[in-house]
Amino acid sequence: MKIVVAPDSYKGSMTSAEVASTIELALKKAIDHVEVLTVPMADGGEGTVEALVKATNGQLIHIMCTGPLGDKVKTVFGQLGKSETVILEVASTSGLTMVPLENRNPFKTTSYGLGELIKSCLDKGFRSFIIGLGGSATNDGGLGLLQALGGKFLDKNGNEVGVFGKDLLNIREVKLDRVDPRIFQSTIIIASDVDNPLCGKNGATHVFGPQKGATEEQILLLDKAMKNYAQLMELELKRNIHETPGAGAAGGLGFALLALGGQLESGANVVAKAVALEEILSDADFLFTGEGRSDVQTLHGKVPSYVGTLAKKHKVKTILLSGSLGENTEELYTVFDACFSITNGPISLDESMVHAKKLLYNQAFNIAQLLKFQENKG
């Protein structure tokens, strides 16, 4: 029996690699002579660097950069195998989890660190980038990133504005002629499953601003400033990109990376291609996948749905094993053959996160017993 284990992370409690290894232990404990292949997945958010580095036998490179609040933080990027491609993620340079709840305010966060990280990679000779955009704390339209790479943004007095979200409100002129030319000689894949434009009711600020701490007043101010910023940028670029689906990803970082010549791709697809997931699944008997919480939104581009659809293409039976299942999840069975939660009784969210590894192991072991019974019966 060949089983592929390809989960997303259980955000806040386990990485995708930890989820995969826990399920693997349970399967091997319950079933003799089982072949288990673990393929930790991600969608461009937290864990994307780790998943791709592990899958390609690459290396993690540790470095300092400017964090979302403007202070120096430790971060990491990955080199894929021995190639010249590097993987970066917003979650580890200006991620929402890096900002305490009481300090979340998109006026006071910046994407400057991601620009520093890109520049450091250019200095090291890398010219092929995959940049995961999930989990950002910023809503600066990539202002900070572009400043770190040499872009100039001036106020009404001709002075350079600051690097934070609030500084979008003061921009009156954009100069991109001093942006590091090496970035335009590079390939940039933008890994994101967000299809929002930059501005408007469906844009970055209105849709994602509240979870980053934006007040109603800030949302109105930032969206208006973002539109002005986009118009000035596009005047300089001589092309319209702010309405491109995905330009609103990561508080507008999608827009800034499109301006630098980046190409948007589904985050789950980028990871799946890099790890050759479809080839691995082609002769499997079962797939285990999962995430922190599954509901009908899972079917709209989330990792479990993506890998489940790939498995279905090859007639592989698919088991969804997530931290919890939402209400009215019958639609999940259009992709998955069976759906399980790791919880085994009344339990609080905090308790389930603290004991997630044990709960996951026990539930995976129980499911494995069923698979063993089916195998023996067959």
Based on CA atoms alone, the radius of gyration comes out at 22 Å
- Report the CATH C-level class of the largest domain: Alpha Beta
Helix and strand content put the structural class at: alpha/beta
Number of helices: 12
| Tally of separate domains | 2
Description:
- The protein has 378 residues and is of the alpha/beta class.
- It folds into two domains: 135 residues, 3-Layer(aba) Sandwich (Rossmann fold); 220 residues, Glycerate kinase, domain 2 (Alpha-Beta Complex).
- The chain is built from twelve helices and 15 strands.
- The protein has a six-stranded mixed beta sheet with strand order 3-4-5-6-9-10, with helices on both faces. A five-stranded parallel beta sheet has the order 2-1-11-13-15, with helices on both faces.
- Helix 1 packs across helix 12.
Fold topology:
Elements: E1 2-5, H1 16-30, E2 35-38, H2 48-56, E3 59-66, E4 72-79, E5 85-89, H3 112-123, E6 128-132, H4 143-148, E7 152-154, E8 173-175, E9 187-191, H5 204-208, H6 216-237, H7 253-259, E10 263-265, H8 267-274, H9 277-281, E11 286-289, E12 293-294, H10 303-313, E13 317-322, E14 324-325, E15 338-341, H11 349-354, H12 356-377
Parallel strand pairs: 1-2, 1-11, 5-6, 6-9, 9-10, 11-13, 12-14, 13-15
Antiparallel strand pairs: 3-4, 4-5, 7-8
Helix pairs in contact: 1-12
